[in-house]
Amino acid sequence: MNFLETCRIVVLNLLENKFKVFLTSLGIFVGTMTIIMVIAIGKGGEKQVLDQFTGLSAETVYVNLNYEKFDAENADKLEKLTLDHVNQIKAESVSIVDIYLLNSSYKEVTIANKNEYVEINAVSENYDKVSNLEIEFGEELNEEDQLSGKNVVVIGGKLAQKYYGVSEAAIGENIKIGNNLYKIKGVLKGKGDGIQGLNPDSSIFLPYETGKKIIGDSGIPRIIGLSDSIDNIGKTKKEIMSTLNYMLDDATFYMIDDAGSRIEAALSSAKTMNVLLISVGMIVFIVGGIGIMNVLFLSVRERTREIGILKALGSQNNEILQQFILESAIISCIGGLAGVIVSQFVFPILTMTNVAVVDTIEGKVMAFAFAVVTGTLFGIYPAYKASKLKPIEALLVE
User: Which helix (H) or strand (E) holds 207?
Assistant: First the structure.
């Protein structure tokens, strides 16, 4: 019996047992769908992490409050960071490209005759360069604004659109913070609120000295710097800490970390979750594979006389083996292909639920490959049992 004849017999058997094929392939179908979905969700999670750090250089370093050291009992011992510390670090460090001081707090702001609590960021020079922020309309805060203490601000694009309809319309308008008016000088290009020490799209930026008066004692200043190379991150951290150690009585109130470590840690967590999700999908595949194995065992029992006849007519063990393996492979292909097709209709539904998904060809190929391999492997043992049936015993089975 040649291969084409084997294929013909398999196809005839499958067509005669359509409902059984449907039920058998259902487990593989669900497994394929699961793998495609979990890969898409995992990729979506990784994309969300990368989007959070969009535009943020891995060379960025942060000097933040060490909350493990800082508590209510020793709060009076904390020395807050100042522009003097920033200037000294910049003067002494050989690996820092630029650095700025950031002090943030939420304050009630009157903007377009509406009141809202908004994040106020007092920033020193070059905050835009270090945090990779760009002006879309108007002008950036400059050295004169910093030195003169002018009542000017730069606001995030999302904030401008919310109150003025279009970002450009915000230029020249006044906002009220406390009892003072501040002129909107510039609007930042949208970045997406990220984990970079500030939320640029929804914030207000002021010259440091001007903003410090508004924030008062409610904020704890932080330093954000930019190393000249990813390879020099460790060196930059040491230089910053060295300066703080002799300028502060107790520099352990502060800790230094870097964006590269944050990105790596976040991506590592996303990938771990991706692996866990794929593991769940694999369990579903195994269940589907066991279903195929059980159905093929039943098929072997039902077709024992048929196998006996084929052997009596000269079919070899390997031909019987080939027939049943081919049957399990086709069932797996049907289930896998159905899963791939139906998944295309599920993605829009997931998108509507605000679940981050990234549909990829690789995910579909991987899921389909798993489907075929899993189903085929689970069909080998029943096929082996069928091939070992003795012709006389098989023909005598009623």
Answer: strand 203-207
Residue of 11, 226, 273 lying closest to 100 (CA atoms):
226
Per residue in 258-274, pLDDT tens? 776 666 666 666 667 66
Residues 6+ apart with CB under 8 A from 38: 274, 277, 278, 280, 281
Segment 32-59, tens digit of pLDDT: 888 888 788 777 777 766 665 555 566 8
Give the amino acid at 101: L
For 73, the token pair is 């009992």
**Rounded to whole angstroms, how far apart are CA atoms 391 and 311?**
6
Report yes or no on 260 lying in a domain. no
Contacts of 361 (CB under 8 A, 6+ apart): none
What is the DSSP pairing of strand 152-155 with strand 254-258? unpaired
What letter would DSSP give residue 237? H
268 phi/psi in degrees, rounded to 5: -65, -40
pLDDT the model gives residue 262? 64
Domain count, the chain: 2
Nearest to 367 by CA among 341, 346, 388, 348: 341
Range of the domain at 23: 3-52+265-396
Q: Which two tokens stand for residue 29?
A: 């179908």
**One domain for residues 296 and 335:** yes
* Residue ending a domain, choose from 192, 216, 247: 247
Nearest to 327 by CA among 359, 369, 372: 372
- Phi, psi for residue 64 in degrees, rounded to 5: -115, 165
Q: Is residue 67 part of a domain?
A: no
* Locus of tokens 């069909």: 379
Domain check: are 45 and 92 in the same one?
no
| DSSP three-state, residue 110 | strand
Residue type, 233: I
CA angle 154, 152, 127 (to 5 degrees): 45
Rounded Cα distance between 356 and 227, Å, is 32
Say yes or no: 99 and 216 in one domain. Answer: yes
pTM of the model: 0.60
Query: Which of 247, 280, 307 marks a domain boundary?
Result: 247
Closest CA to 379 of 336, 319, 330: 330
- Contacts of 231-236 spanning 24+ positions with Cβ under 8 A: 232/59, 232/95, 233/59, 233/61, 233/258, 233/260, 235/95, 236/61, 236/93, 236/95, 236/96
